[in-house]
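Sequence in, structure out. Go.
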Amino acid sequence: MKENQQVVKDGLWNNNAALVQLLGLCPLLAVTGTMVNGLGLGIATTFVLVGSNVTVSIIRKHIPQEIRIPIFVMLIASFVTNVQLLMNAFTYELYLVLGIFIPLIVTNCAIIGRAEAFASRNPVIPSFIDGLAQGIGFTLVLMILGGLRELVGQGTIFDGAHLLLGEWARELTLRFYITDQKFLFAILPPGAFIGLGLLVAVKNIVDKRATEAKNKELPISPIPQKSS
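Output:
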């Protein structure tokens, strides 16, 4: 149980793919113009992560070491194809918005890395938990970054929710201010780089303060006196 809890903690915070490993930055920086875009890509990535982790864990003892990476890529590509077909069928407009970054999930180093570093060496249940935790952690970063850029750039949060959830979700949009012209610096790639840098800085500050607080709580052992 403690091992699974540590796997979850690593995926969500300690070893977050976006904030610590800095993997999958191409889609992360490109599509997070809005929170909905980030959520859509995050769900797709999580589905692929969980599916590939579980599959690799099941067949890990039957995969020749010499060709394991090509096999991992093939498995990941099959799950990405399923995601493409599902999004094309049920969230077509969002699929058009995300564009090439859905098939590019195949090349996401975070997914291949988890298959190689974790799923190929652990049973099914821990691999499932690892894939889910890593996917949720990645999705949260996508949503936060997308939400910040959307708020600064156009004054809304969750605009375009109907692209993912259906027409009823139009009412979920929160508008904080009305502007005649969007703040393009926040919506275009420079805003993504600055936003991600701020998120990484916040995480480092939180980790540093947590470490300092933990060190203060540790009892100070007395220095043994040397006998003369």
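Check: The longest helix spans residues 124-154. The first strand starts at residue 156 and ends at 157.
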